[in-house]
Write a structure and sequence with these properties.
mainly alpha; single chain; 109 residues
Length: 109
């Protein structure tokens, strides 16, 4: 494969990954967190677009597992319905997809 084909493949893959994260966010997250991630959930959660990708990813996994720490403010309120939704989301997406989503959210403004 020549270098141009390799670069095109890398660019296309990263573009599709960003597009997938955008679609996932709009379908699964925006209803509660807002189109740009600037809403609090039930008036208590942290605004997720103000978090970095690592914080978002950690909070998602912790909330899904039911192991939220006080230091992870996005985990509040601990709501069983929200926890079930996040647990289902984590079970149905790869680590790579979840990471891409966290990066996407951290770049929303």
């Amino acid at each position: 494969m020549n270098i141009l084909k390799i670069l095109l493949l890398i660019f296309t893959t990263s573009l599709l990954s960003a597009n997938d994260a955008s679609t996932t966010y709009l379908r699964k997250c925006a209803g509660c967190h807002g189109h740009n991630g600037n809403n609090t959930v039930l008036g208590k959660s942290k605004i997720i677009n103000q978090m970095n990708a690592d914080e978002i990813e950690e909070a998602l996994y912790n909330y899904a597992a039911g192991t939220c720490d006080v230091e992870v403010p996005v985990c509040e309120p601990k709501n069983p319905m929200i926890q079930h939704g996040k647990k289902s989301f984590v079970q149905n997406h790869t680590k790579e997809q979840i990471h891409a989503l966290a990066v996407y959210i951290s770049e929303l403004k």
